[in-house]
Design goal:
The chain has one helix spanning 2-27; strands at 84-85, 90-93, 95-96, 100-101, 106-108, 114-119, 126-130, 134-138, 146-150, 170-176, 183-189, 197-201, 208-214, 217-222, 231-235, 241-246, 250-255, 261-266, 283-287, 293-295, 302-308, 314-319, 327-331, 336-340, 352-353, 359-366, 380-387, 392-394, 396-397, 412-417, 423-428, 445-449. It is mainly β and 451 residues long.
């Protein structure tokens, strides 16, 4: 009996070892060299969504500050598996094509210079923050501008009105309080034909890369604190935190539209982390359900991930793909990349997708004090539009108005498509602004039919 038991135990040990070896070999199988699907890799049209806890908390009425913080789950440390390196099989450099002639549909002026702006998700209003810290809304013609809130007295204020790409009727504005270093996250809710309503909430810590991935789900990245404690924070449209997930050493990250997948870049300061799972300055796509990952750039070749295309087919990131310097669009499966040379040496913070995912607009600022020499080169801002299906880049021009002219009123920045995709709006660029991030006064906005 003792011998039989020993044989049985030996079989169990051998079978266990074989299972572990098979699992290791399957996971470490190198990526295929064709365009067929990869096991465990996000595929085009994948509709998986990020599960969240059931909601039992009811938000307070709009305009009222919560008297207590909504309960949130404690973030657990994620055990990320070693990533499978996927090297693009097709690398295309987008070619600069002849300039596109765009007619100016209308313009709008402002009594104060503007720092950042957005279309209201309802499409019938503009929302913007002025350089003196005031939040306004107005009609599409810029008239009847109405003060929504003043942040001008707030110490070290930070404002956020970037490409959140809302899928519902809500936008967030981040700011720092006047008497505390705690960041607040203000909610602006819109109703067609009605004034917007502002509500203040208090999520945990500072959030960056705030992006909507469903009508009632938005995620942002929380960095800072001890290394390895970075979190992906998911909230609903009322600002209630539903989930916090620890993604160690994440520098920037965005959730795919529809949920389920996170594209992120690891911190480029991890020179003393001897763990292969956390190569510094590297881009990954993470399955939020299984924690399996693919690595879509070489180690150390990525700086920041910006956004997914609305259809979830492309990830925009600052990275070196192949031998060409520039920003890049990497396909969902990691097997194709489109290099954007104009992004070389620049962060495409104001890049914005058209709703149909066929166009990507961005601006590049050159010259000024960031250039070599004693600020001798004029500060300029040039707008580009990427035609994704045709792998082409154009510089929009309007007859009689050269957008790259050194004359400040003729320059533009922060291109944004209207929610219905019919109109492309620009914020004018004032080269005389001290830090190059404010508009001119007349016009403050240019609006053109979408190319």
């Amino acid at each position: 009996m003792r011998y039989a038991g020993a044989v049985t135990l030996s079989k169990i040990i051998i079978l266990g070892a074989l299972a572990s070896l098979i699992g290791f070999l399957v996971f470490m199988t190198p990526p295929r060299e064709d365009r067929s699907p990869l096991a465990g890799v996000p595929q085009s049209g994948a509709g998986s969504s990020l599960p969240g806890p059931k909601e039992t908390w009811m938000p307070p009425p709009l305009g009222q500050t919560p008297t207590s913080v909504a309960p949130t789950a404690t973030a657990a440390v994620e055990e990320l598996q070693p990533a499978v390196l996927v090297t693009p099989v097709i690398i295309t450099e987008a070619v600069l094509s002849p300039q596109t002639s765009l007619s100016i549909g209308f313009t709008a002026n402002s009594d104060a210079t503007i720092r950042s702006w957005a279309w209201a998700p309802t499409g019938d209003k503009l929302i913007y923050v002025t350089s003196d810290g005031n939040l306004y809304w107005s009609g599409l013609d810029g008239k009847n501008a109405t003060l929504l809130h003043s942040y001008s007295s707030y110490r070290n204020a930070v404002y956020l009105l970037d490409d959140q790409r809302p899928m519902g009727n809500t936008l967030f504005v981040r700011h720092r309080g006047a008497t505390t270093s705690q960041d607040h996250l203000d909610i602006i809710q819109f109703t067609p034909g009605q004034p917007p309503v502002l509500q203040e909430v208090y999520p945990p810590g500072v959030l960056f890369d705030i992006t909507w991935w469903s009508a009632d789900r938005v995620s942002g990245v929380r960095t800072g604190g001890a290394r390895g404690t970075e979190k992906l924070v998911t909230m609903n449209a009322s600002g209630q935190v539903l989930e916090q997930r620890n993604i160690p050493h994440m520098l920037s990250g965005v959730v795919k539209p529809g949920g389920g997948w996170l594209a992120y870049v690891s911190s480029n300061e991890l020179v003393d982390v001897p763990i292969p799972a956390y190569d510094p300055g590297t881009a990954y796509i993470l399955n939020l359900s299984t924690n399996t990952r693919i690595q879509i750039t070489s180690p150390g070749k990525a700086r920041r991930v910006h956004s997914w295309s609305p259809d979830g087919q492309w990830v925009l990131l600052d990275a070196r793909i192949g031998t060409t310097c520039g920003a890049a669009l990497v396909s969902l499966d990691g097997l194709e990349a489109i290099v954007i040379p104009q992004g070389c040496g620049h962060y495409l913070f104001d890049a914005n997708w058209s709703p149909n995912s066929r166009r990507l607009a961005f601006s590049v600022r050159t010259g000024g004090c960031d250039a070599e020499g004693p600020c001798a080169t004029p500060l300029t801002s040039q707008v580009y539009i990427v035609d994704v299906p045709n792998r082409q880049i154009t510089e929009p021009k309007e007859e009689g108005l050269h957008l790259d002219d050194p004359d400040p009123p003729a320059q533009m920045m922060q291109p944004k498509w209207s929610p219905d995709g019919s109109t492309l709006g620009f914020l004018s660029f004032d080269a005389q602004c001290s830090n190059g991030d404010c508009s001119g006064l007349a016009p403050a906005f240019y609006f053109m039919p979408s190319p």
